[in-house]
Amino acid sequence: MIKKSKKIIATGLFSTLTAAYLLGSFAQAQSPTKESSAKEKLEAYIKFTQIISLIEEEYVDEINTTTLIDKALKGLMSNLDSHSSFMDTKAYKALTVQTKGEFGGLGISIGMKDGALTVIAPISETPAFKAGVKSGDIILKIDNQSTIGMNIDDSVKLMRGKPKTDIVLTIIRKKEPKPLKIKITRDIIKIQSVYVKTINEKLLYIHVASFDQKVVEDVKKALSSHDKKDGIILDLRNNPGGLLDQAVGLVDLFVKEGVIVSQKGKSKTENLNYEAHKEGSDTTTPIVILVNGGSASASEIVSGALQDFNRSIVIGEKTFGKGSVQIVIPIATKEALKLTVARYYLPSGRTIQAVGVTPDIIIHSGEIAKKEDSLLLKEKDLKKHLESELEKIDINATIKSIRVDNNDTKSKESSVEDLNKTIITEEQLYKDAQLKSAVNILKVLIITNKGRK
């Protein structure tokens, strides 16, 4: 960075203030209501430049003016809201790495909540997820550096790094008596966004982990390959958001008309409506949506819009509440501003910013105790038991045959693991109270024909 001459700055400042004063005088002559605003602006600019000059003249160490202004800009932007920021050359370059969808990091989405750096959600099967980081965790330290006063962009920089390097997060977790230290090994983050399974053969379970550029395409494939489904469970828990067009496209698959989401800002160019289209819409299959505190941004648009359209039942816990629009505005060629320019509004006109989506039915996470029948086995139960035992014998025989005939070393355990990738068992349902409740509610919708249009 080049250290600018104070004399040049002073001359430029004098010219700027003179022009501003003349403009202010003109405003005063034309409109008394604008005079105050122009005068206040002028006084604010003078105060800012006076402080800069005082720091340059009196501060104990030599100050690089460009660095000083950059720090001032970062402070200015961070005090607007938690998502606006000034990106210097390094930060702007890092942004391009983030948008490639593959990077060395932890696999968590973070945001500011009540002034604290908070985990929105760990991304499924990433290092953070495997290490036990949870939605709602407050990050107190990144290695030995405190996050107090740190903005989101700076914290992301610290958490990213070379794959296979370690990092320690000190977190505060609800109901834990003291801070926890979690060691995580960074890795290349490759995100699979859509997971598809079936429940009781007739129920389709779609888990959208994040909204990347292939979500709508993958969900369409899931719907077409399970055309005999009776109902759909759309799991958006711990989904931190992503691309707006994918969120709009996903809602569009289930509604035929109306504004899915709108955005409104100070500039008219930011006032946009995103509408549904009739073509290819499934408006009859009952839908239950799962959300929690880790559901944010695009996932809140999907759950809130389908809730407003009366197209689904939303269950779980209140969502994160991130409903603002940011754009990146380049400054020169190597720096940029990330600026909040609008807010999202759902079909009913409500905003999700700092409010979130409240489920129709609140269900907290946890397990459901499965009570075994204490009565003696009945004949039909005995028959089922014998049939299941015979099936086990058949399965073992088949596996043994495969091993002998094909010299296949695949174990029975791996076969079960493969099966778990495509179905959700009754045992798994009882370990997830929210999902079990979603299944029960969906069955009621199917029986009563509710949710159909």
Characterization of the model:
This protein is an alpha+beta fold. The protein has three domains: 6-63; 85-190, Pdz3 Domain, CATH 2.30.42; 194-362, Alpha-Beta Complex (2-enoyl-CoA Hydratase, Chain A, domain 1), CATH 3.90.226.10. 39% of the residues lie in helices and 23% in strands. The chain contains 13 helices and 19 strands. It has helices at 6-30, 32-58, 65-78, 89-98, 127-131, 152-159, 215-225, 244-252, 298-308, 379-406, 412-420, 426-430, 433-448, and strands at 85-87, 102-105, 108-113, 116-122, 138-142, 145-146, 166-172, 180-185, 187-190, 194-199, 203-208, 231-235, 259-265, 272-275, 287-291, 313-316, 324-331, 335-345, 361-362. It has a six-stranded mixed β-sheet with strand order 10-11-12-15-16-19, sandwiched between helices. Strands 1, 13, 14, 17 and 18 form a five-stranded antiparallel β-sheet that branches.
